[in-house]
Specification:
The protein has about 240 residues and is α+β, with helices and mostly antiparallel strands. It folds into two domains: about 20-155, no CATH class; about 160-230, no CATH class. About 50% of the residues lie in helices and about 10% in strands. The protein is built from seven helices and five strands. Strands 1-5-4-3-2 form a five-stranded antiparallel sheet. A hairpin with a 2-residue loop joins strand 4 (about 135-140) and strand 5 (about 145-150). The chain is elongated.
């Protein structure tokens, strides 16, 4: 059996075709990467610049129902834990890459570009005007929001208890009453007279109550503090 002779011209032609094919593949990969990079840049810009509440046109059959929350539910949590629910443009922390990836996946699955991002986080993580545990949401309409991603550390287990006095004036007054009473109990009996009496106890208690209440009022006014229901969705530092 005679071997077929090698035609160099044919080999060169085949090599050229392979090179063109490889170049085409590389171009296609480059285009895909460029589109992905452009999408990432657009998403980051949308989050940083923020936007007003909009209704994103999701395909509801593709949404995970356990990630859908009503504004009233979000408000309750923010008030209980003294958190804020604000437009993403006020967030001064870094949005993790995992969150960006989830946004891209959502956009691809629903064939939309998401807008109106909002974040739940402690006040210290926002750039508030007047000169621990963030959650990224996007509106889906009718005061409902879809949770995209949560990152960072969990809240301190005692945060809800520590935030309780700041829910309203009644809670704060009750705390001052209890603290004043406990401090009064620490005052030695008969410190201001030879014989301790019930009247002396209540006079000292009244003095302690006024002193603590004055400090609380001064602290509140000096630092522009307010109760949780007034700040949960406020962009102002001294709301």
């Amino acid at each position: 059996m005679l071997l077929k002779r090698t035609n160099i011209e044919e080999k060169l032609s085949l090599a050229t075709q392979r090179d063109v094919s490889q170049e085409q593949v590389l171009n296609e990969v480059y285009e895909l990467l460029k589109i992905d990079t452009d999408n990432e840049a657009r998403i980051k810009q949308t989050i940083e610049e923020g936007s007003k509440n909009v209704q994103n046109n999701f395909s509801f059959d593709l949404l995970e129902t356990h990630r859908i929350y009503h504004l009233d539910q979000i408000k309750t949590i923010c008030i209980d834990y003294r958190l804020r629910f604000l437009n993403s443009k006020y967030f001064k922390g870094e949005i993790p890459q995992e969150a960006i990836s989830k946004i891209k996946a959502l956009e691809k699955a629903h064939n939309i570009e998401l807008e109106g991002f909002k974040i739940i986080a402690p006040s210290k993580l926002f750039r508030l005007e007047d000169k621990d545990d963030p959650l990224l949401f996007v509106p889906i309409g009718n005061k409902y929001f879809y949770l995209i991603h949560r990152w960072g550390n969990d809240l301190h287990p005692l945060r809800k208890i520590l935030a309780w006095p700041f829910k309203n004036i009644v809670n704060l007054t009750a705390l001052v009453v209890v603290i004043a009473y406990l401090i009064t109990l620490l005052v030695p009996n008969g410190l201001f007279s030879k014989e301790g009496s019930r009247a002396e106890f209540w006079i000292i208690y009244f003095f302690m109550f006024k002193a603590i209440a004055s400090v609380v009022i001064f602290y509140g006014f000096a630092l522009g503090k307010n109760f949780n229901p007034a700040i949960w969705n406020s962009k102002y530092f001294n709301a």
